[in-house]
Every structure is written in structure tokens, then in C-alpha cells.
Design brief:
By secondary structure, the protein is an alpha/beta fold. The protein has helices at residues 8-16, 55-72, 94-107, 127-136, 164-177, 179-185, 198-209, 228-234, 238-243, 248-254, 260-273, 336-348, 351-356, 386-402, 404-413, and strands at 20-24, 79-86, 114-122, 140-144, 186-192, 214-217, 304-306, 311-313, 325-327, 332-333.
């Protein structure tokens, strides 16, 4: 089976067209969430040492990217470049955030085709202190909140107190003080676990804020062996939770673009049509001769993540052991050939399984989130046989036939970004 080998040229192209740069602002946090990706529940992340990222490292990577962009700039072409701040809790290191924003504004990147915008994921514990600045700089804000007080009970501060009251108070203050900003620039992410349900989450956000949140299950990758039993107790399946809702149909109608069923239908419509093209070159090639191996993003095709310690990763959801480079205090090590070799090695471990997998044209698997990627007997957890594939297609076709409004809304409303 032939698959698209990533080349050093591909890596450079991705860097020249990078759309999002994410900084791990600090590894400190004012909460002690039981299911945090950096908690004892998970492995594969650097030890939390109470450190902040230095502005020196941020400046080095921004300057490095700016030089690449200058070489690639074509007069009159503009694209959005998002700077994101992540943690830990990013609002525990606001001086760094202000330094980065001030520096980017002085660079005037619009002159080389980059229109900068800012975003942040926050637990909102310090939102009352810094909301004025966030509004002034027009940050896109994603607030982590799991629902009502009981749903939020895994998100405790370091004294063991539920964060719900303080977080809700700060969010309400933002809503009252800056209603337009709250409406247009603020979103919510709720983690699904054994203390909430899809329906209760939906009802809470609809009632409190007239918002529909993102609902994400607990991350199933990288669980520590000794914590697997604890994880199983906390985990709730999002599909089962969604479809057991008393008001399932009403909720589904409103959340149609964010339901498990719609995700399956989008894949079905997109790939069964044969009219899906990721690049202009795809228009001139026979895709049957080059089926993709796994759904793993090519490094930096969507974003770049810089950890507190200067590790360079393709995104924040990948274990720190898969670092592709390093930002030191005085230099950057980022070798395009080494990056492509590493990436190709990891992806190639699954190619033999991809040959016979009937979903290899619309695979969603990121190999960096497979626990046995480094083992000799690495296997794909979402392998789909021909029989199972045909059953799923038949089920999707029958559903669309019975619910034509889904087909219409998907065609009209779904936006697919590469």
C-alpha cells in the first residue's frame, strides 16, 4: 500500500502557512481537577513544576516563524493567524500574555499577510481580575465548566472546595458587564463524566447563558495503568448519554451540528460522494491509488504547541514524549528532515492494517494518541472490517432516507476545515 510520505518540504510548507501557535503559558493551576490531562490519572506529560514559560522563548519562535513568512509572502494575500494561550491556567501568568500581545502588535504582521487574533482556554477562576484586558484585545474565550454544582464537583481548588460558585459568579459578571462580547466571543467546554449527562449539561447552559457548549468525554489515551479502574468509574460514553436523554429529539434538533450521529453522517456523505479534495493536486490524482494511512495530521498543518519547557509539539493533545523540536533560551532546534522521518515512522507502523481497513479514506485515528504506538505489536483500535463497514453505511443511508432534513442541514451548515 502506498501512502503519502511526509517530506521536509511538506513540513516547511506547513510552517510557512501555520494557522495557530499555542503557548503553554504556565504549568501552574489554581484548580486540582480529578480528570486533568496533567493529573496522576494520565502519563506521557512532563512533571508539573510550577513553572512559567519565558517571553524569551516565545519571542524566538515568533521571530523564527516571521522569517519564514517573509520568504513566502505574496503581496495582497492575507490569512488569520491565531495566538492561543493554554495552561495550567493561563490567567496565572498574565504578564507573559501581555508581553506576547504587545510584541505582536509592534511587529505589524499584517504587512506580511498575517491578521493576528487571540484566544484562550480558561477555568474562569481569575476572570473577574482580567476580563477588561481580554475584552480590549478581543480574545476568543473558551471557558471550562462542566454544568451545575454537582457536575463541577471534580473541579476543585487546592483546598478541596468546589469551584462552581466562584466560576459562575465570574461568568455572570462578564455576561452583565460585556453582553456583546459574551454573546459573540465566549464559548464553553464541558467534560462529560459520571457526575453529569449530556441532557443536564445542555439544560444548564441553555438556562444560565443561552449557549450550547462543546461536550467532550474524558480522554481515553495515555491513562496510567494503576489508574485505569478509577478512570472507568469516572468515564461516561457520550453517545449513550446523548441518546438516553428524555428530550433527545429536541436537544438533537438544536445541537444537530455537534451530535455523535451528525459526525458519522458527515463522514458518510463526504466520502461516499467522492467529491472530497484536500488540496488542488487531489483534483488531478486518482485517490484510490493513494489512500491515506491514518487520520494523523501532518506536523504543523493545523497548529504548533510550545510547552513551558520549550518542547515543540504538533498540538496540545499529544504526549510530551513526542516532541519534534525545542525552543531554548538562546536558540531553536527544529529540523524539518528529522520531523518528517519521525512522523513517517509512527504512521508507517499502522500501514499494513490500513490496507484492509474499509475506513482508511476517512480515518479519524491520531497515532500519537494510541497507547501502544511504541510497542512491537501496535494495533489500530478503530479498525473496521468490510462487513462492519457495510452495516454502518446501510444504517447511515437508511437514517438519511428517513430524516432528509439532516442531509439538507449538513450540506448547508457544516463547515469542514483542513
Amino acid at each position: 500500500m502506498v501512502f503519502y510520505n511526509t517530506t521536509p518540504q511538506n513540513i516547511r510548507h506547513n510552517l510557512q502557512h501555520l494557522r495557530q501557535l499555542v503557548f503553554e503559558v504556565t504549568d501552574r493551576c489554581n484548580l486540582n481537577c480529578k480528570y486533568c490531562a496533567y493529573s496522576e490519572l494520565y502519563q506521557g506529560h512532563d512533571t508539573r513544576e510550577g513553572k512559567n514559560i519565558s517571553f524569551t522563548r516565545a519571542k524566538l519562535i515568533i521571530d523564527y516563524l516571521q522569517d519564514l513568512w517573509k520568504d513566502d509572502y505574496s503581496d495582497g494575500n492575507y490569512c488569520e493567524f491565531i495566538i492561543s494561550f493554554y495552561g495550567g491556567e493561563p490567567l496565572m501568568n498574565v504578564p507573559f500574555i501581555k508581553q506576547v500581545v504587545d510584541y505582536l502588535e509592534r511587529l505589524e504582521l499584517r504587512k506580511i499577510g498575517k491578521i493576528c487574533s487571540y484566544s484562550m482556554t480558561t477555568n474562569a477562576m481569575l476572570l473577574d481580575q482580567y476580563m477588561d484586558y481580554l475584552v480590549e484585545k478581543d480574545f476568543g474565550l473558551l471557558i471550562s465548566l462542566d454544568g451545575d454544582e454537582f457536575a463541577q464537583s471534580y473541579r476543585e481548588d487546592h483546598s478541596g472546595k468546589n469551584s462552581f460558585d466562584r466560576v459562575l459568579r465570574n461568568i455572570k459578571l462578564l455576561q452583565e458587564k460585556y453582553p456583546d462580547y459574551f454573546k459573540n466571543k465566549t464559548g464553553f467546554n464541558a467534560v462529560l463524566h459520571n457526575r453529569n449527562e449530556v441532557e443536564s449539561i445542555y439544560q444548564f447552559f441553555r438556562t444560565q447563558f443561552d449557549k450550547i457548549p462543546r461536550i467532550a468525554p474524558l480522554n481515553e489515551a495515555g491513562i496510567s495503568e494503576e489508574k485505569k479502574e478509577e478512570f472507568i468509574k469516572m468515564y461516561r460514553n457520550p453517545i449513550e448519554s446523548f441518546y438516553k436523554s428524555v428530550n433527545c429529539e429536541a436537544i438533537e434538533s438544536e445541537m444537530i451540528m455537534n451530535t455523535p450521529r451528525t459526525a458519522q453522517l458527515v463522514d458518510y456523505i463526504l466520502y461516499q460522494s467522492g467529491n472530497n479534495f484536500n488540496t488542488y493536486n487531489d483534483l488531478y490524482t486518482n485517490k484510490d491509488d493513494f489512500p491515506p494511512a491514518t487520520g494523523t495530521c501532518t506536523p504543523f498543518s493545523t497548529k504548533m504547541f510550545i510547552t513551558v519547557k520549550g518542547k515543540i509539539l504538533p498540538c496540545e493533545r499529544i504526549g510530551h514524549q513526542y516532541s519534534l523540536g525545542q525552543v531554548f533560551e538562546d536558540r531553536i532546534e527544529l529540523n524539518e528532515e528529522s520531523i518528517s522521518d519521525k512522523h513517517n515512522y509512527y504512521v508507517s507502523r499502522y500501514v499494513k492494517q490500513c490496507v484492509n481497513c474499509t475506513s482508511n479514506k476517512f480515518c479519524s485515528l491520531c497515532v500519537y494518541q494510541v497507547d501502544d504506538i511504541c510497542k512491537d505489536d501496535a494495533h489500530c483500535p478503530i479498525y473496521l472490517s468490510k462487513k462492519d463497514f457495510e452495516k454502518r453505511n446501510e444504517k447511515n443511508f437508511k437514517f438519511l432516507e428517513e430524516h432528509p432534513h439532516y442531509y439538507r442541514r449538513i450540506l448547508e451548515e457544516v463547515k469542514i476545515s483542513g
